[in-house]
Design goal:
Elements lengths: L22 H4 L3 E4 L4 E4 L1 H8 L13 H22 L1 H16 L1 H11 L2 E2 L1 H10 L6 H21 L1 H9 L7 H20 L13 H9 L18 H20 L6 H5 L7 H13 L10 H13 L16 H5 L1 H14 L2 H4 L7 H14 L5 H14 L1 H12 L7 H19 L1 H5 L1 H4 L9 H10 L4 E3 L5 E3 L7 H26 L17 H16 L7 E2 L2
Parallel strand pairs: 3-6
Antiparallel strand pairs: 1-2, 4-5
Length: 550
């Protein structure tokens, strides 16, 4: 089985968007970046898939090369699902928008007090050096920025970044950062579909508990508290879930002939792509499986799914604020789930035999009960119940069906609409989202083919690149192309504002306008005028009038 050259790279938020157009990005066969929300493939893979009839089909690959190319697209699609279809991923996707939305009023107050100055983090340092009083709004904006950035670093890459976070003068505690991230997510969702918190749990409901945890110096919640570091982060879980789902697809596409040695020769089982699976095997005390469709691989993918499905404080009430770190952080959830699986014994670890919906519900519920966490089913049921009963949320569901979203909080509406639809479909077909690689070929068929085709078509990423590396809307059957183009245009107006706001807050030097990651069809001056106009509409100030601190 020749798998030479099959390699996928996940690009996280620390990677500059402009680098996606550089030579280094073409060394990888695909990427997904949570700052631009685009699924990308290398140009030659686009050509292979386009030769299949211009349609990204999982069941009509005419060759092994086509199956490999599709598996790369599928891998990156799993990253889209992770960031728009799981609660942990949704929180990470909301971090960048939160800075612009939550700080809008305070940023206006900073402009009144200090004028247009960039970056604000430099302004704060300058005021501190001069012993000038730092106003409340400036502190609020920068503290918010750092709290959410600490959350991102601790969730994605705690092994490498926990010490960096702990030594930052802005850092208060892990519990505080996680509390702020949950609050930001809740606020964005509430402002979009439930401003009176009629169906969502209100973030203020557990403010007093957080204050008490700080006052009683509960570990993880007070200034200077030690940081417990898990042996992996969400990035390893994201990559492990995507890689092993991809391998199960290739296993099915090969008719069950794909062996581990074939895979190892390609380097597909190295580094970040296999770390979570190795940690999983260590904690459940099991050996490397004989085949790619072994029950232990199915259990690993289910544990990834449950680990990425926290719900307390966002969609369901926070039952124990003292446990919010462990109940929210995907890596800690992953470790606790692995321990729980081990404690249930050998037979439990062999529970995934047919990759069925019933197996998913039974095992995920049992594991969730063991770690005292609401199950993925309770999360999905809460989202569906709320979206059915609350008029504003029901309106969003209608917008999502037509892809015609209202103005205001536009990317939040789009991402929350997609999340809601995925939770609804997960209630009906959980095995598709937990074990998509097993569903996408006819080898095992845990779902009828027509259901699989419908679900995959519905939940592909909204924005894709093509062989020219520019970003385009995914063409959706039954949807007008002009509607889809408007969706893309409006979405990236907001994304550009988020990026410019980030630069205003923390980026040294003048504003940067490298939007080649989005399009190459406009001149630099046209791109600058577009981004400047978007930023001015959002803030009331043109970027050209900013004073740049040296």
């Amino acid at each position: 089985m020749n798998l030479d050259g099959l390699f996928v790279e996940f690009v996280d938020e620390t990677t500059p968007l402009s680098s996606l157009h550089g030579a280094t990005s073409l060394e990888a066969q695909g990427s997904y970046n949570t700052l631009d929300f685009v699924v990308r493939l290398r140009p030659d893979l686009h050509q292979i898939l386009e030769a299949q009839g211009g349609e990204l089909s999982m069941r009509k690959c005419d060759s092994w090369d086509a199956a490999k190319a599709f598996s790369t697209y599928f891998h990156e699609t799993v990253h889209w699902w992770q960031h728009v279809g799981t609660s942990a991923g949704l929180m990470l996707s909301f971090l960048q928008p939160a800075h612009a939305h939550m700080n809008r009023q305070r940023l206006g107050e900073v402009l009144v007090a200090h004028g247009p100055v960039k970056p604000l983090i430099g302004l704060a340092a300058k005021l501190l050096d001069a012993n000038d009083k730092q106003d409340e709004s400036l502190n609020f904006v920068l503290n918010n920025w750092h709290d959410l950035e600490f959350f991102r670093k601790l969730v994605l890459n705690p092994v490498d970044l926990a010490k960096v976070v702990a030594n930052d003068p802005y850092f208060m505690s892990v519990g505080h950062s996680y509390h702020m991230a949950i609050g930001a997510t809740s606020w964005l969702i509430g402002a979009t579909v439930d401003p009176e918190y009629e169906v969502l749990p209100h973030p203020c409901d557990w403010e007093a508990s957080m204050a008490e945890l700080r006052a009683t110096r509960t570990e993880g919640f007070y200034l200077g508290s030690p940081i417990k570091v898990p042996p992996l982060g969400a990035r390893e879980i994201f990559e492990g879930q995507a890689r092993f789902s991809q391998l199960q697809y290739l296993f099915g596409a090969s008719g069950g002939k794909l062996a581990w040695n074939d895979i190892r020769r390609t380097g597909m089982l190295s580094g970040v792509y296999v770390r979570a699976f190795e940690v999983f095997l260590d904690f459940v005390e099991d050996d490397w499986p004989a085949t790619v469709d072994d029950p232990i691989v199915g259990l690993f993918l289910l544990i990834c799914d449950v680990a990425l499905s926290p719900s307390e404080g966002i969609f369901l009430p926070m039952t124990d604020p003292s446990a919010l770190i462990w109940s929210t952080d995907p890596a800690w959830r992953f470790i606790f789930l692995c321990r729980a699986a081990k404690e249930q014994g050998h037979d439990f670890k062999r529970s995934i035999q047919t990759y069925s919906a019933q197996e998913y519900w039974d095992v995920s519920q049992r594991l969730s009960d063991l770690i005292l966490s609401p199950s993925p089913r309770k999360l999905a049921e809460a989202v569906v119940r709320n979206s059915d009963s609350h008029p504003s949320w029901s309106q969003l569901v209608e917008e999502d069906q037509s892809f015609e979203y209202r103005e205001g909080n536009f990317p939040i509406r789009v991402l929350l609409g997609r999340f809601t639809r995925m939770q609804r479909d997960k209630l009906a077909s959980p095995q598709f989202f937990c074990w998509p690689g097993m569903c996408l070929t006819s080898y095992r068929q845990p779902l009828p083919p027509e259901t699989v085709v419908s679900l995959f078509s519905e939940h592909q990423a909204l924005f894709l690149d093509r062989a020219d590396r520019d970003v385009y809307p995914r063409l959706v059957p039954g949807k007008d192309e002009m509607t889809l183009q408007h969706l893309l245009d409006e979405f990236y107006v907001w994304v550009s504002t988020y990026e410019m706001t980030r630069q205003w807050l923390v980026e040294d030097g003048p504003f940067d306008y490298d939007y080649l990651w989005l399009t190459s069809k406009f001149t630099s001056s046209e791109i600058k005028a577009w981004a400047d106009n978007n930023f001015q509409i959002g803030t009331g100030v043109h970027p050209d009038v900013f004073s740049i601190l040296r």
